[in-house]
Design brief:
The complex is a heterodimer of chains A (257) and B (635). Chain A is α+β, with helices and mostly antiparallel strands and 257 residues long. Chain A has 2 domains: 3-103, Roll (Ubiquitin-like (UB roll)), CATH 3.10.20.30; 106-247, Alpha-helical ferredoxin (Fumarate Reductase Iron-sulfur Protein, Chain B, domain 2). Chain A has helices at 33-43, 106-114, 133-143, 150-154, 156-159, 171-182, 195-201, 213-217, 224-241, 243-256, and strands at residues 3-14, 17-28, 63-66, 69-72, 86-90, 97-99, 102-103. Chain A has a 5-stranded mixed beta sheet with strand order 2-1-5-3-4. Chain A has a two-stranded antiparallel sheet with strand order 6-7. In chain A, strand 1 and strand 2 form a beta hairpin. The longest helix of chain A is centred in the last third of the chain and has 18 residues, at 224-241. Chain A is elongated and about 60 Å long. Chain B contains 18 helices and 20 strands. Chain B has 3 domains: 11-253 and 396-465, 3-Layer(bba) Sandwich (FAD/NAD(P)-binding domain), CATH 3.50.50.60; 261-394, Flavocytochrome C3, Chain A, domain 1, CATH 3.90.700; 482-607, Methane Monooxygenase Hydroxylase, Chain G, domain 1, CATH 1.20.58.100. Chain B has 635 residues and is an alpha/beta fold. The radius of gyration of chain B is 24 Å and the shape is globular. The chains are: A alpha+beta (257), B alpha/beta (635). The interface between A and B is large, with 59 and 70 residues. The complex binds flavin-adenine dinucleotide (FAD). Flavin-adenine dinucleotide is lined by residues 20-26, 43-46, 51-53, 55-59, 142-143, 179-180, 215-217, 227-228, 231, 235-236, 270, 395-396, 420-422, 433-437, 440 of chain B. The site of flavin-adenine dinucleotide (FAD) has 43 residues of chain B, from helix 1, strand 3, helix 4, strand 8 and helix 5.
């Protein structure tokens, strides 16, 4: 097993400001960046604040920026860096800092609440749901999301534009609308709720200009732009300018249900 | 540095029901309580949606009979009792088996999307100890689906409240990144609330309510090699003990047979049992499928005797017996341990788990996507081309808060309930895979229901100033650790020593002398923990958080070690080298742990209630003779 000393620069501070602090710390074979942060806590900086939980890439807590790139600390192996490279860790930039690497992600929870929930179909009792695998594949892809909020962090619509936050739900929650819209048994339409219209009018789908930054940083490899955002944009367009398509869609859906 | 003392009293809020924990059990409890009209507060240490449940992989067990029409709740019950070696609180096992299908179907009405059968129903997969394919699943990320569905159901209830009151949080509020350090009681010994700190700011607050549901999960962080996350410091177990409620079956800790063993930094991370359920096999360094050598007497007739028969079972389960790789977890973990000890292990001290020669690469990637991902990213291993190296890892605690089977009420503390991994009894001496997620839903719902009913009939909760002041002083003590000078202790060091102690001395194979030594070391650590000292201030300070968690880990570790020393037999998740056999005389005996007045843990032996006749009738006489004590067989 080989061990070496690595150089790290970590942002320390709080809402009032802060800066990068240098550390030299031991690294062992096979370790990930989160291991190094933990070693720093145990040996040099016991109060270094970092958010983490499962350390297995499943919970999406330990999001930060490593050398400027949004990543999960627990899924970034030290072996991707050269041994003489300085590794810089900073908090996610789109959210207010609380302390050190921990940011205030409440924006995301506020947005989650504004997305209308799944509408269960009338007349189907629990246990009577029947759906084909191929019909749930797409929504299942979106449900792989671990809510690490890296896509929210990287999306240029809000990354440096605080002013857009009130009107833009961000890729994660636009994808949530797409997920529900593609759910084979969601009865939103029957209940008078037009999910695509809410995406456009209430959640800022129009702000997205499909640069795919969100897809690039997604640790789950979800094709957010191609599979969720673009199809939803297309359907919004159809519906807006082509009432026949709109009507047709409704009828098809009814018949299918 | 001494922290700045906040001026004025600690803030208080009034609720009807408080749920401590936002995993599957806590969220299901909160949904039920709110739907029954109780104003409900949920408190959790991490962000909403990130509780440990999110890590669950393989599935939820429920006898929906979608994949095999012969399945029934009775067979699920039978499998659960066998898996637990008949130590299960049988009424819990019965309720669990009966209610699990409804709890899974209900998730679909809240938006869950499980994998499907060809005819469009919920697909079910095979798992160790389950006679039929029974686990509803979503690839190998079932826990994520479960927690997200419950989270989204909570949000939808909040949306309803918003429409009627203009406030999302009027009837159901989640306090995320807050930790409870004490359950508070009133002058009559009834539950009256909880004492909490906000992790972000370090601010203290009190939530008052007549009913509190503990749903805090497990204890794995007391062990060095574990599949568990940092949250698993046994808080709910300790909160119950300190409030006066006993724990049961604490000697039973499940070591999952397949954790990653390499590289060291990922040692312990889980490799889901679905790998074996879907066809993966275990081999030693000689290439032998060694599990055939380890089928215990009680299971001899139920498992394949040859590789050929085991392989045929995947296609034709009615005419063949299952391969021994799918024995209950305790059996497989012990077998791996024995192979490694005998010098037939893999290079990094595990054994080989292979799917690469059993399934085409694309099937592996589709059925086990997160395993593929996990090995590729963390270990540079392509599981479609080469075997994985795996070994046992501390995974689950069967022991927990002693509860009433029907209501989830704790023993002796009015208003205190417990559900999920923190509760004991349901799984007996060993839990079957998939039976936890269903347990969370069945008993989470029951706890929420009974807590809401209890709260509706209770007087408004009142916490005395003294109790609040004491809880506050306890929480601040680590900042005064400097006064101990050179004798001050570092919380990280104490934690590491505790983990090493539990791993080495109260781990998968136990010996009397080692457990006795563990108890001595734990007592020493408890002394040293009084002198724990932390730096900095209260804002998001991980050193301080750990210092407070140490109290809980030490209490729980002592319970495990004491009960393990007392139980002079091997059964399920409790294996003693010096008492290698299961002893039927211990079958009807439970060990209760209570916090003693002067610190430390007291044990009590209690006899369990006889198993109801109609449930016993589900088993053959000869099988019962292997498990039941003599006096039980006579009556
Ligand atoms: C890797 C892995 C895979 C698994 N796979 C499966 C599977 O496929 N099937 C299955 O049935 N089981 C599985 N299990 C087991 C199962 O996931 C757990 O037993 C179950 O999720 C526990 O749920 P819970 O609701 O009891 O607690 P958790 O989900 O752990 O939630 C505990 C909650 O309590 C909170 N909490 C704890 N202490 C405090 C405190 N002091 N103050 C405030 N809040 C607190 C935490 O923040 C958290 O929100 C798996 C376990 C692991 C580790």
């Amino acid at each position: 097993m080989s061990t070496y000393d690595a150089r790290f620069r970590i942002w320390r501070g709080d809402a009032d400001g802060g800066g990068l602090t240098d550390y030299t710390v031991e690294v062992h074979d096979g370790e990930v960046v989160l291991d190094i942060v933990h070693r720093l806590q145990a040996t040099q900086a016991p109060d270094l604040a970092v958010r983490w939980n499962c350390k297995a890439g499943k919970c999406g807590s330990c999001s930060a920026e490593i050398n400027g790139r949004p990543r999960l600390l627990c899924m970034t192996r030290m072996s991707v860096f050269a041994r003489d490279e300085t590794v810089t860790i900073t908090p996610m930039r789109a959210f207010p800092v609380i302390r050190d690497l921990v940011t205030d992600v409440s924006f995301n929870y506020a947005k989650a609440r504004e997305i209308p929930a799944f509408v269960p179909p009338a007349g189907l009792a629990p246990g009577e749901y029947r759906m084909k695998q191929e019909d749930v594949d797409r929504s299942q892809e979106f449900r792989k999301c671990i809510e690490c909020f890296l896509c929210q962090n990287t999306c240029h619509v809000v990354r440096d534009h605080e002013e857009n936050k009130p009107v833009f739900a961000g890729p994660r929650f636009l994808m949530r609308i797409a997920e529900l819209d593609m759910h084979p048994l969601d009865a939103a339409e029957e209940s008078g709720l037009d999910r695509r219209r809410t995406a456009q009018d209430d959640h800022g789908l129009g702000y997205c200009n499909i640069t795919k930054c969100c897809t690039e940083v997604c640790p789950e490899g979800i094709a957010i732009t191609d599979n969720a955002l673009i199809p939803m944009k297309e359907r919004v367009v159809d519906r807006r300018y082509d009432p026949v398509v709109w009507l047709g869609n409704r009828i098809r859906r009814r018949n299918g249900a | 540095m001494t922290p700045v003392t906040p001026v004025g009293p600690v803030e208080r809020q009034q609720w009807d029901v408080i749920v401590v924990g936002a995993g599957g059990a806590g969220l299901r409890a909160a949904i039920e309580a709110r739907q029954r009209g109780a104003r409900t507060a949920v408190i959790c240490k991490s962000l909403f949606g990130k509780a440990h449940t999110v890590m669950a992989e393989g599935g939820i067990a429920a006898s929906m009979a979608n994949a095999n029409p012969h399945d029934t709740w009775q067979i699920h019950f039978r499998d659960t009792m066998r898996g637990g070696k008949f130590l299960n609180q049988w009424r819990m096992a019965e309720l669990h088996a009966r209610e699990a299908p409804d709890r899974v179907w209900e998730l679909e009405t809240w938006g869950a999307l499980f994998d499907r059968t060809p005819d469009g129903r919920i697909s079910q997969r095979n798992f160790g100890g389950h006679e039929y394919p029974r686990l509803a699943h979503v690839g190998d990320r079932t826990g994520l689906e479960l927690i997200r569905t419950l989270q989204q159901k909570i949000v939808s209830l909040q949306q309803e409240d918003f429409r009627t009151t203009g406030d999302y949080e009027s009837g159901l509020k989640v306090f995320q990144e807050c930790t409870v350090t004490r359950v508070l009681k009133d002058a009559f010994g009834r539950v009256a609330g909880v004492f909490c700190y906000d992790r972000e700011s370090g601010r203290f607050f009190v939530l008052q309510a007549p009913a509190v549901v503990l749903a805090t999960g497990g204890i794995g962080k007391s062990f060095k090699v574990t599949s568990n996350s940092w949250e698993y410091t046994g808080d709910g177990h300790a909160l119950a003990l300190l409030a006066g409620a006993p724990l049961v079956n604490m000697e039973f800790v499940q070591f999952h047979p397949t954790g990653m063993v390499w590289p060291p930094s990922v040692k312990g991370i889980l490799v889901t049992e679905s790998v074996r359920g879907d066809g993966g096999v275990l081999r030693n360094s000689e290439g032998r499928r060694f599990m055939f050598d380890y089928v215990p007497e009680v299971f001899k007739e139920k498992y394949a005797q040859s590789e050929e028969e085991g392989d045929r079972w995947y296609e034709d389960p009615d005419d063949n017996r299952r391969p021994p790789e799918l024995l209950p977890r305790d059996e497989v973990a012990r077998a791996i341990n024995a192979e490694v000890k005998a010098g037939r292990g893999s290079p990094h001290g595990g054994v080989f788990l292979d799917v690469s020669t059993r399934m085409p690469a694309d099937v592996i990637r589709r059925r086990l996507p997160s395993m593929y991902h996990q090995f590729k990213e963390l270990a540079d291993v392509d599981i479609t081309a080469e075997p994985m190296e795996v070994g046992p890892t501390c995974h689950y605690v069967m022991g927990g808060v002693h509860v009433d089977s029907e209501t989830a009420a704790t023993d002796g503390v009015p208003g205190l309930f417990a559900a999920g991994e923190v509760a004991g009894g349901m799984h007996g001496s060993n839990r079957l895979g998939g039976n936890s997620l269903s347990d969370l839903l069945v008993f989470g719902r029951r706890a929420g229901l009974h807590a809401a009913e209890y709260a509706a009939g209770a007087a408004a909760a009142e916490v005395g100033e003294e109790a609040v002041a004491a809880a506050r002083a306890e929480a601040l003590a680590p900042f005064d650790g400097e006064s101990f000078g050179d004798a001050a202790e570092n919380p990280y060091t104490l934690h590491q020593e505790l983990q090493q102690t539990m791993n080495d001395l109260v781990g998968i194979i136990r010996r009397e002398s080692e457990m006795a030594e563990a108890l001595e070391r734990i007592a020493e650590l408890r002394e040293r923990a009084r002198r724990v000292s932390v730096e900095g201030h209260r804002q998001f300070n991980p050193g301080w958080h750990l210092a407070l968690d140490l109290r809980n880990m030490l209490l729980v570790s002592e319970c495990v070690a004491r009960a393990a020393l007392e139980r002079t037999e091997s059964r399920g998740g409790h294996t003693r080298e010096d008492r290698p056999a299961m002893d039927r005389a211990w079958r009807p005996v439970n060990l209760l742990c209570r916090a003693a007045d002067g610190g430390g843990i007291e044990l009590e032996r209690v006899r369990t209630e006889p198993i109801r006749d109609d449930l016993l009738a589900l088993f053959e006489k000869e099988e019962l003779a292997k498990y039941l004590a003599d006096e039980e067989l006579e009556s």
